[in-house]
Structures are given as structure tokens and as C-alpha cells.
Design goal:
CATH topology of chain B: Glutaredoxin
Strand content of chain B: 15-25%
Strand content of chain A: 15-25%
Largest sheet of chain A: 9 strands, mixed
Number of helices of chain A: 17
Mean pLDDT of chain B: 77
Radius of gyration of chain A: 45 Å
Number of helices of chain B: 5
Distance between the termini of chain B: 26 Å
Shape of chain B: globular
CATH superfamily of chain B: Glutaredoxin
Order of helices and strands of chain B: HEHEHEEHH
Low-confidence stretches of chain B: 1-12
CATH topology of one domain in chain A: Rossmann fold
Low-confidence stretches of chain A: 1-14, 245-251
CATH class of chain B: Alpha Beta
Oligomer: heterodimer
Structural class of chain B: alpha+beta
CATH superfamily of one domain in chain A: P-loop containing nucleotide triphosphate hydrolases
Mean pLDDT of chain A: 80
Strand order of the largest sheet of chain A: 5-4-7-8-3-9-10-11-12
Distance between the termini of chain A: 141 Å
Helix content of chain A: 40-55%
Number of domains of chain B: 1
Structural class of chain A: alpha/beta
Radius of gyration of chain B: 14 Å
Strand order of the largest sheet of chain B: 2-1-3-4
């Protein structure tokens, strides 16, 4: 659903129909540019769904953002009420009126007007036309036309006069928002949607499991494509904000900067550098696996870098967090004192889902943190439907990403359904860490692995997440003959390894020494042999020399004898 | 205005005060012309102490229309005597007009 919708929204932008942007966050995205320019649009819904606010914001934004003066005609409230109702928002009605760019025309209908015969509502049109001309208005809002039906006894007449009014507005090329109250089975109580067929927006405030969520839907948009889903919206500090899940821009700036997780060993698992700044990190795990501790470590690391951190806690009080974190060597109080760390602790049930979102966004804007921890995001979502949860998370993640804020969200996976829907959005987060319980050999140890981490090399190993009073640490597990070893088994295995390593080194030293000794022996042997040989050589040499001398002497003797024989006849021989 | 005036009101002769009326009409439309004629006739017959009638053409004086919060035409505002009353329509229903304006004709009718 999400994918096809984002494609549609892409097409909307290219739509040719002239449109008037409302400046309402998200609405212009789902309508591909806003309301049909120069035409009336109907905004309807039950009481209290924000119709008047929509109308007023459309005008105020028109003035502030698009330089189009506006006229606000209300049949429901006094001018003071209009101003008071939006006083908490930064709409500045008084200022705009003083500038002559906005007119709030509060027409309190005379309930005691006595009808004495035929009449029409021409004066309404005259006064509106007059105001439009006087203020050079390009935008008009009429809130709420149903009141006209209550003021006069002739609905048929009111209906035909309204039809005339809408035609007049159209003829004058005024972009108009007309609000109507939802009727029983019809969009408006008196069926005026029949005359307002260009664009119909339906607002709704539904309570699902005790939690109210506001939704907006563009029912009809003649001549234009539009996002056809129901979009959750909220009324926050800046008024109405529609949060189309898919249309929040994906063209945000991304940072290549990496920030430490604050957990030694975890950075190593994430390619040695931690996570990307401005990315979304989901830490999921069952109860007691150390999710809060991971969140606190991120916070601690950021504060060490001198950055501002906003920590939303929906389960523990600030004092509890301080106590619990100091037990694992994380002292957060110092950061609070230095104004770097801000806690916001609130019960999840105090507000509805979108109220929480609005509150969080407000605080984020106020404190301008670089890191936000939401612990746990799953308890926030209690009571909401799976769709709402993922929608809210997506909104939150997109919001934070767009603001370049690193977001650490923890998810308690014990609530299986909810957790599943949260895990389902893990496609949206950049890094997903999963904490698991490793039970073996009568122990329960914490394990951690990186489910995914976009754009970074990361370890595929389950490592042990160790919490001790000196701090938190992620250490590689030992894979032994019995499988993964954690806890004391790991420590035992590690020490066994150490022992065997020691004995091995002893042995080799022994061998080396033996070898050395052997070498010495051999050397000695060789030296002796050489000496013996030298002695032998000398002796032999002498013998050779003696033998040669004897041979020479013999030869000389023979020579002498031969000479003698030639003097004397050989008969002398015996 | 005060509670003390209540018994007086019943026996009061309605002839003492002048009627002050403002009538909003749209130009020279048939309904508007008819309304003016009917109103003058009614006042002449039922309010002998006289009346002041101001006629406002909504097209000529839109700022007055704006200031007075007028939506319909014809609209008649009875300014005096108090209380202020607002009547809309072309005065076809004569008895309602007389009741609204507190004219003695009511009793007769």
C-alpha cells in the first residue's frame, strides 16, 4: 500500500490543475499542491475535528506564506472566541487583522429573527463581496454553513442561496474553504456537498481502544489525482499537521558522519565506528534485556561529545533511570546538571497517540537535541491499532530524520502483536539491534546482534551484552563444543583457553631448550672430530713425507749401482 | 426595561413613542419594493404616533450591511422603542409583523 501510494503522490505534483497551497503540513503533499485554486472546497466532519482550524490555517498561511489576503466568515463563534480558540497556536490573528490582510467576520445569527414572508440571502453575498473587495482577498473561509440552516426555517431556500453563494465565489475566482458538519449517513447535514463537488475533505476523530486518533481523507478532488488513504493528523503547536506516511520527503539531507553508540564492543560490531548521525535505531528485546541501558549509553556518548539529548521515558521516572543506570556505571546526573541531557517522563496513557507525537515534536523543537531516545516506543502505542503504531513510528522517524536527529527507539517485544507491527516498520530504520536472552547451563545471559545496519559493515555474530557495575560492554561470545558459550560458561571457556595456551608455551620453550642443548652437543662433537682429523692429517702428512724421502734415497742408490755395473762386467753379479 | 414598567406596558397607549425602523433592501427588486410599500402601509395604519424609516440599499451601503450583521433581504430592524427586533421577509404575514413590532393591531387581529 505504502509503495503504490508514494508513486501516486509523485504523479500529483505534475498535475496541471491550478492549486492553492494550504501551507498545512502534509495536506499539500497528499493533494499534490493544495486545494483547487479559485474554487470552493468542502471540509466536513463531526464537531471538534478541527474543521474551523483547517479553515483558519488555510487563510493565515495564505497571507503569511503566499501573500494572499483572506476573509474568514464564521456563523458559529464571536470574533473573540475565534481568536481565543487559536491563541495557543502561532497564528497571530490580531496582527494580521491590524495589517489589513485578514478579516474575521463573525456573524452571530439572530436566533430571534422573525420571518414575515419571502426573503433571500443576498445581503450575505453583498457583505462578503464587499469584504473581499475591501481586503483584496484571494481566499475565503466560511465556517460553518450548517448554522445557516438553523437560523432560517426554510432549508430549501438556504440551500438554493448557498448554491448561489458558491457560484459567486467561483465566479470571483476565490479559493474557498467551506466547513460543514457531518450528518447521519451524509457528508453534511443538509447535503450541501452536492454543490461542492470540486474537492471534499473529510475529517474524523475516532476512538479506538480508548485512544483517539484524528484522520483526514480527501474524498473527492475533481480533475486531480490525490492520496486516497486516510491520513492521521494531529493538532500541535503549529496547528493542523497531516502526516501522510509516504509523502514525507525522502529527499532529506543525509550525514555520513558516524557517532558512537557508547557501548564498547557495539561500535566494533557496526563496522568499528558506530551509527550514522541522523539515522534511526531500533533496539528491540524482551523485558530485562537491557534496552534502556543501550538507550542510556547512546545518550551518555552524545553528552560526552557535548551534544544535547532528549530522553523520553514512558515507563520509568527520571530518578529510577538515574539509579538504574548508575548501577551499571553510567552516571547521567552530571549531564542533566550541565543542561545537556533532558528527561521527559510521562505515563503513556495520559495522552492519545498523536498527542504524544505532538508533545514530542514540541519538546524536540524546544530543546534542539541531536539525539532522541524513546524508551520504549511500544508502550506509547498501547491501545492503538497496529496500523496506527506503524504510522506513528514512521511519522516520528521521518520527522527526526528530516531534522537530522539520531533517534534511538526501544521496543518491548513481549507484547507480541504490537511488537510485530513495530518490527514491521524496521524497514524504515537504519539500524536494528536485537537483544536476546541466551539461556544455557542454568544461566540467563544477554545477547545482542545487529539485525541490520544500513550502509555500514556489521558483524553477523550474536555477542554477549555484559552489564556490570563498571559499565556495559559487548564481548564476543565463545563458540565451544556445546555451541555458543555465554556468561560463566564463556568465562570458563576463556580461562580454559588461557590455561592451555600457557601450557603450550611452556612446552615449546622446553623443546627449544632441548634443541639448543642438542645443537651444543653436536657442535662439540663436530669440534672433536675436526681436532682428531687435524691430528691424523698431520701424522699422515709426515708419513707421506718420510715415505717419499725413502723412495728418493732408494732411487739414488740404484743409480749409483748401475753406474758401477757398466764399469765392471755383469759376471760380478752374484 | 425594568420590572416596574411591566404593568405600565400593558395599559400604555402605544401612540406616544415614535417608531424608528431600518429596512435593508436590495436595489429595486420586486420583493424589496413590495416590502417597502407594505411596511409603510402597516405603519400608517397601526402606528399613528408616526415613524422614521431609514431604507438601506445593500448594494449602495454594503459597509452598513456589514456593520449590522445583516444576511437576508428584506431585513427590518426595529431600533426603537426597545427592545430591538429583527424581522426578515417581505411582510406578507401581517399579524406576525404587528406582533413583532408591538402594534395594537395585534389585539384586533
Amino acid at each position: 500500500m505504502a509503495n503504490t501510494d508514494s508513486e501516486n503522490l509523485g504523479d500529483l505534483v505534475r498535475s496541471r490543475l491550478p492549486k492553492s497551497p494550504t501551507g498545512i503540513v502534509g495536506f499539500d503533499e497528499i493533494t499534490g499542491g493544495g486545494l483547487p485554486a479559485g474554487r470552493p472546497s468542502l471540509v466536513c466532519g463531526p464537531p471538534g475535528t478541527g474543521k474551523s482550524l483547517f479553515a483558519l490555517q488555510f487563510l493565515v498561511n495564505g497571507i503569511k506564506l503566499y501573500g494572499e489576503p483572506g476573509v474568514f466568515l464564521t456563523f458559529e463563534q464571536s470574533r473573540a472566541d475565534v481568536v481565543a480558540d487559536v491563541s495557543s497556536l502561532d497564528l497571530d490573528i490580531d496582527g494580521l487583522e491590524a495589517d489589513g490582510r485578514l478579516l474575521v467576520d463573525a456573524l452571530m445569527l439572530e436566533p430571534q429573527a422573525i420571518e414575515t414572508g419571502e426573503f433571500n440571502l443576498e445581503a450575505l453575498m453583498v457583505r462578503l463581496a464587499w469584504a473581499v473587495e475591501k481586503f483584496g482577498a484571494k481566499r475565503v473561509a466560511i465556517d460553518n454553513v450548517e448554522a445557516l440552516f438553523a437560523a432560517f426555517t426554510k432549508p430549501a431556500l438556504v440551500r438554493s442561496e448557498l448554491q448561489r453563494l458558491f457560484r459567486l465565489l467561483k465566479d470571483q475566482g476565490l479559493t474557498t474553504v467551506i466547513t460543514g458538519e457531518r450528518g447521519d449517513g451524509t457528508l453534511t447535514r443538509h447535503g450541501i456537498e452536492e454543490y461542492l463537488s470540486d474537492c471534499v475533505v473529510v475529517l474524523d476523530d475516532r476512538v479506538v481502544q480508548d485512544v483517539a486518533t484524528r484522520r483526514l481523507r480527501v474524498l473527492k478532488y475533481r480533475g486531480s489525482n490525490h492520496g486516497r488513504n486516510e491520513y492521521p493528523f494531529l493538532i500541535g503547536a503549529h496547528g493542523l499537521e497531516v502526516l501522510p506516511i509516504t509523502s514525507l520527503g525522502l529527499n532529506k539531507q543525509v550525514s555520513a558522519e558516524r557517532v558512537s553508540t557508547g557501548v564498547p564492543g557495539l561500535d566494533d560490531m557496526l563496522g568499528g565506528e558506530g551509527v550514522f548521525r541522523g539515522s534511526g535505531i531500533l533496539v528491540s528485546g524482551s523485558s530485562g534485556t537491557g534496552k534502556t541501558t543501550i538507550g542510556a549509553s547512546f545518550a551518555d556518548a552524545a553528552c560526552q561529545r557535548g551534544e544535547v539529548v532528549l530522553f523520553f521515558s514512558f515507563e520509568e521516572s527520571e530518578a529510577e533511570i538515574h539509579r538504574n543506570m548508575s548501577s551499571v556505571g553510567l552516571d547521567l546526573t552530571g549531564w542533566v546538571d550541565r543542561g545537556l541531557l533532558h528527561f521527559h517522563c510521562e505515563r503513556p496513557t495520559t495522552r492519545g497517540l498523536e498527542d504524544h507525537l505532538a508533545m514530542m515534536q514540541q519538546l524536540i523543537q524546544e530543546k534542539a537535541p541531536t539525539l532522541v531516545v524513546i524508551d520504549p516506543v511500544s508502550s506509547l502505542a498501547r491501545g492503538a491499532t497496529a496500523f496506527d503504531v506503524s504510522a506513528m513510528l514512521m511519522r516520528q522517524v521521518y520527522y527526526l530524520k528530516a531534522a537530522g536527529i539520531t533517534a534511538v527507539m526501544t521496543v518491548l517485544t513481549d507484547e507480541s502483536d504490537l511488537a510485530q507491527s513495530i518490527i514491521n516498520i524496521s524497514s524504515l530504520v537504519d539500524t536494528s539491534l536485537e537483544l536476546v536472552v541466551l539461556t544455557a547451563l542454568g544461566e540467563r545471559n544477554r545477547g545482542l546482534y545487529v539485525l541490520k545496519s544500513r550502509g555500514t559493515a556489521h558483524s553477523n555474530q550474536i555477542r554477549e551484552f555484559v552489564l556490570s557495575d563498571t559499565g556495559v560492554e559487548v564481548v564476543p561470545v565463545v563458540i565451544g563444543a556445546e555451541g555458543l558459550l555465554t556468561g560463566s560458561a564463556r568465562i570458563a571457556a576463556e580461562s580454559a583457553e588461557r590455561v592451555s595456551a600457557e601450557s603450550m608455551s611452556l612446552e615449546s620453550e622446553e623443546l627449544a631448550r632441548a634443541l639448543e642443548r642438542r645443537r651444543e652437543t653436536v657442535d662439540e662433537h663436530v669440534a672433536t672430530l675436526r681436532d682428531d682429523f687435524a691430528a691424523e692429517e698431520r701424522l699422515t702428512q709426515r708419513l707421506i713425507t718420510a715415505s717419499e724421502q725413502r723412495q728418493e734415497a732408494l732411487r739414488l742408490d740404484r743409480l749409483a749401482q748401475g753406474r758401477r755395473r757398466t764399469v765392471r762386467p755383469p759376471e760380478v753379479e752374484p | 426595561m425594568t420590572t416596574a414598567s411591566e404593568p405600565q406596558e400593558r395599559e400604555r397607549e402605544p401612540t406616544l413613542e415614535r417608531l424608528r425602523l431600518t429596512l435593508f433592501v436590495s436595489g429595486a427588486s420586486a420583493t424589496s419594493s413590495r416590502a417597502v410599500v407594505r411596511l409603510r402601509d402597516l405603519c400608517d395604519r397601526h402606528w399613528p404616533s408616526g415613524y422614521d424609516l431609514e431604507i438601506v440599499d445593500i448594494y449602495q451601503q454594503p459597509e452598513v450591511v456589514f456593520a449590522r450583521g445583516v444576511l437576508a433581504v428584506p431585513t427590518l430592524i426595529k431600533e426603537l422603542p426597545l427592545p430591538v427586533k429583527v424581522l426578515i421577509g417581505d411582510f406578507t404575514d401581517e399579524s406576525r409583523v404587528l406582533t413583532a413590532l408591538g402594534m395594537p393591531g395585534t389585539k384586533r387581529g
